[in-house]
Amino acid sequence: MDNRRGIYWGWYVVLGAFLILGINYGVRYSFGVFVKPMALEYQWSRSVISAGISLMVLAYGVGGIFAGRLVDRIAPRWIITAGATLMAAGMFLTSLVRSPLQFYFTYGILGGFGAACLGVVVCNSSVGKWFVRRRGLAIGAASVGVGAGTMAMAPLAGYVVKVYGWQAGFILIGVCVLVIGVFLSQWFMGKTRPEDYGLLPDGEGVTERRGDSIPDGKPRLGPSLRQVLRDSRFWILAVCYSLAMMTEMSVMVHQIPYALDQDIDPVVAASSLGLVGMTSALSRFFFGWLCDRIRNAKYAAAIGFFFMTAGMFLLLKATSATILFLYAVLFGFGYGSLAPMMPYLLADRFGCHILGAAYGMLIFFVVGIGGGIGPVFTGYIYDLNGSYTPAWLFNFIILLIVTFLILALKPRRPDAAA
User: Which of 388, 365, 363 is nearest to 116 (CA)?
Assistant: First the structure.
């Protein structure tokens, strides 16, 4: 393959990752649309229903460990195809559930493990392997798909649930995952990394060097996964982003039920989630661009956390559609920083030699633990108090803490991989 004959293949990987992340996260962040209809039909508490999404993100985190190891070894299209098939099956079966245990198995376990195979670990790690100088921009552009998918899927699911019922909503998103996920993975995600095809990262030229070499011809060096897990910088990233994800999943699942409790129209409430997706889409591109230009990317991460904190403060007072939309803009802009910042900070501190495996471990803590705790914890607080206010206040304090904690992240060491 000669890079000079056309568009650098890395940009096709970015496009594929953008679209696959869009359908994956569009499905996950549409979950809030289903909470109240399922609660009304089955008389399940919100903590019982929220446990479904918590189990899904826990399975997603566990699955991310294995998906990360696989993406360092085989072409991502096979991982994504398997994941899309499993996730779609979970959504179809969820439309038939009659008990919480059935719901936890279909949506939580099948959906979660399937989603892990077409999530950020596989997609953003694949993108990161094709770029060095433009890594921030490329990962940011791919991550825009998360927000774009949320912006598109949440209102669509809200409309289908309102008109045809929640069962039809799960069938719709299952079809979308199966058709789009399988087709796109086979079309765009069939290659591993540029060195295996005689290319240099960023599309800068052609090389006949082996895939374990870097542009200066020396062997690729980098810490092992065990060394990464013993490094305090990894744990600062894990703590900060786990806490941020806990708050993010908390509000993404419960902001629509909260809005409905404030007598806000259901379609308007679902549109607020779409607005979070829209602003986060712009934010992902912005933070990816910023990472390539700022002296130390941890400051970009702190800016993202600050916007989430400001949005959380507004949600405490969101009793009208106007304030809800303002919250969505600020919180969405900050939340959009999470997807591009995590793989960028990992690659910047540890190199990309084992980016898939290291990112998979980080996602286990961030999404599996942090994201898994958030929804069910918030549902429990609601069941206990009959109000979301204590949960929103707790989230505000947590986000304020991580805004400053991320600044303790030490810079890259001289022996890190290029």
Answer: 363
Does residue 417 fall inside a structural domain?
no
Rounded Cα distance, 21 and 3, in Å? 26
Alpha-carbon distance 213 to 283, whole Å? 34
Phi, psi of 165 (to 5 degrees): 105, 160
Asked if residue 236 lies in contact with residue 286, where contact means CB atoms within 8 angstroms, the answer is no
Residues 256-272 pLDDT 10s: 888 888 888 877 887 88
Residue 418 belongs to some domain of the structure = no
Q: How far apart, in Å, are the Cα atoms of 202 and each of 106, 137, 158, 349?
A: 40, 11, 40, 19
Q: Angle 338-350/120-129 helices, nearest 10 degrees? A: 50
The total number of structural domains in the chain stands at: 1
Q: What is the pLDDT of residues 311-365, one digit of tens each?
A: 999 998 888 888 999 999 999 999 989 888 888 888 777 765 656 677 788 888 8
Instruction: Give the residue numbers spanning the domain of 331.
Output: 3-408
pTM of the predicted model over 0.90: no
Contact assessment for residue 140 and residue 286, using Cβ atoms and an 8 Å cutoff: yes
Distance CA(247)–CA(308), nearest Å, equals 9
Does residue 416 lie within any of the structural domains? no
In a domain, 414, yes or no: no
- Give the whole-angstrom CA distance, residue 86 versus residue 92: 10
> Could you give the CA distance from residue 225 to residue 300 in angstroms, rounded to a whole number?
26
CB contact at 8 A, 173 and 157: yes
- CA-to-CA distance for 291 and 118, rounded, in angstroms? 24
CA distance 408 to 301: 12
- Domain of residue 232, CATH code: 1.20.1250.20
